[in-house]
Amino acid sequence: MIIAKPKPIDEIINEVKDLDKILVAGCDGCVTVCEAGGMKEAQILGSALRMYFRQAGKDTKVDEISLTRQCDRPYLEQAADKVKEYDAVVSLACGAGVQFLAETFNGKPIFPGVNTCFIGVTEQKGEWTERCQACGDCILASTGGICPIARCSKRMSNGPCGGSSNGNCEISKDTACGWHLIYERLKELGQLDRFERPNEPKNWSTSRDGGPRKVIKEVSHQ
Amino acid sequence: MSIENGNSPSKLKKIFEAGHFAVTSECGPPRSSDGHEVEEKAHLIGDYVDAINVTDNQTAVVRLCSLASCIRIKQMGYEPILQMVTRDRNRIGMQADILGAASFGIDTMLCLTGDHQSFGDHPTAANVFDLDSTQLIATVKQMRDEKKLLSGFEMKVGPQMFIGAAANPFADPFEIRVSRLAKKVAAGAQFIQTQCIYNMEKFKLWMKLIVDRGLHEKVYIMAGLTPMKSLGMAKYMKNRVPGMDVPDSVINRLAGVPKEKQAEEGIKMCIEQIQELKEVEGVRGFHIMAIEWEQKVPEIVKGGGLYPRPKVD
Questions:
Q1: Is the same domain home to A112 and A143?
Q2: N or C: which terminus of chain A carries fewer CB neighbours within 10 A?
Q3: Helix (H, G, I), strand (E, B) or coil at A137
Q4: Is the bond preceding residue A160 a cis peptide, omega within 30 degrees?
Q5: Which domain holds residue A171?
Q6: B2 pLDDT more than 60
Q7: Is the pLDDT of residue B6 over 80?
Q8: d(CA B235, CA B251)
């Protein structure tokens, strides 16, 4: 899923402090699971904003809503009447949701309430880690199911570099060396021959390097 | 010896082929546009080595570029080794620089991935890493042997590079290190400069594994050496530099002499290492990285019995 984290409250206040009516819009998708932007977090942010405005002596209206998904048009349209009532929306969806909201509601200022971080997994309650950079050309078959693009700090195709130690990356002792993990897993799978086979330069055109991407699936109309 | 005989007029290659121990050292360009600093460093070491490595924004700190420094050194009549890291340029930029280097007669390269930018003076910079070191080696080989760019475009004149790579025998886990070297050799590496050696036992074990696999007959291996200037430096290298293996015996030996004698002791240790490494099967040369201490290279080369440098055509 997409992992996000809430923006600092001061940054959000700075954007909305002069408005009279603000809607905080959560999203029931990924950001709910990673506890950054669901209804619960929308209510927490809403309370914090109301407290700020009260202390500032302002009578600003702040309400909350959460949409099933902000990355699907029908759900955005369900909120159309509500959105109209406000000067602006603070969206707690990922960057895709924020933008889709902005595209849907022409002329309505939309502010992001979270920082969108990465595609990752829940390690344990309250801890999420990166697994995928959406390069568009998956190589996991050859790397023991562990991605060197997401998990090597130098995104090497033929790692590890000389800087790893005790299984950790040179940039931080808290970061596992992706290639160390790949090596250990290939060994476990009896596929160490893959480790010595040089991997060719990657085609990055399917990644963000190739420009904004689009996926089209033939839809069958049965 | 059946080192793949890619076409290159490289002096370093000729030294190896004539059966001599090769000697290289390095020159780190300044953090300014003062090209004379490069020339001064080259002057200090030029007559004591076969070729001079020129680092490419080492430790991710911006410096006068390797290519321009190499051209200066070449014009002085010395042989530069163009170091190239894949961190800062994509395959277009790197191939262009390789062609530019070759156009000035630069014929020896060292292909590296490069330190992560988080260690340097611009930690917020984007990194590139379009290719990695292994892929850069294969790229240079293709440009030389097939006269083709990675795109497949055929060149009228290709760069005639003798291709080097780095190896760190001490990185962890140890069991990966020989495998990884084999991979670089498979990609086209013809000579290897190792990480600086302090743990002689571990290095010898690594060399034995290299020899057992016959890799020493496929690639020329140069032992990397960095003399210790002081006890403080030794401790720093032990504790702070990623992938470095400094045994307590080295620390203790430096700690055992007065502070003003530590530099001299460091040089002595380096010379003893050369003597010892000359006897290790598969070691074909020495890469002396006297960091900001280039003036000591002549003393080390002489002390190691490696001077005068042989003449080759």
A1: no
A2: C
A3: coil
A4: yes
A5: 134-201
A6: no
A7: no
A8: 7
Handedness of CA A111, A117, A122, A125 (dihedral sign): negative
Rounded to the nearest 5°, which phi and psi values hold at A70? -90, -5
pTM, 2 dp = 0.92
Contact yes or no for B115/B87 (Cβ under 8 A): yes
Q: Residue B98 belongs to what H/E stretch?
A: helix B91-103
Buried b / exposed e along B133-157 (16+ C-beta atoms within 10 A)? bbbbbbbbbbbbeeeebbeeeeeee
Q: Is residue A123 part of a domain?
A: no
Instruction: Tell me the C-alpha distance between A46 and B261, whole Å.
Output: 68
* Cα–Cα distance, B165 to A126 (Å, whole number): 43
Q: Do residues A18 and A95 both lie within one domain?
A: yes
> Is B209 in the A-facing interface, judged by CB distances under 8 Å?
no
Classify residue A82: in a domain, yes or no.
yes
Provide the 3-class DSSP secondary structure of residue A92.
Answer: coil
Using the predicted structure, report yes or no on whether residue B25 has a pLDDT greater than 60. Answer: yes
Structure tokens at B226: 């960095």
Rounded CA separation B200/B24 (Å) = 20
Residue B226 identity: T
- Residues within 8 A of A (CB atoms), B 25-84 only: none
Beta bridge partners of A168: A165, A176
Task: Judge whether A164 lies within some domain.
Answer: yes
Task: Tell me what percent of chain B is helix, strand and coil, each rounded to the nearest 5.
Answer: 45, 15, 40
Three-class secondary structure of residue A116 per DSSP: strand
> Considering CB atoms only, which of A156, A180, A197 is closest to B173?
A180
In chain A, % of residues over pLDDT 90: 93
Of A171, A192, A200, the CB nearest to B116: A171
Residue A86 sits in the same domain as residue A173: no
Q: What pLDDT, on the 0 to 100 scale, is given for residue A222?
A: 63
Alpha helices in A7-160 (DSSP H): 9-16, 30-33, 39-55, 73-78, 80-84, 95-104, 148-151
Q: Which residue has the tokens 């291996």?
A: B221
Q: How many beta-carbon pairs under 8 angstroms link A with B?
A: 94
B197 interfacial to chain A (CB closer than 8 Å):
no
Q: Are residues A36 and A64 in the same domain?
A: yes
Give the position of tokens 């669901």. A38
Closest partner residue to B171 (CB to CB) among A153, A162, A195 is: A162
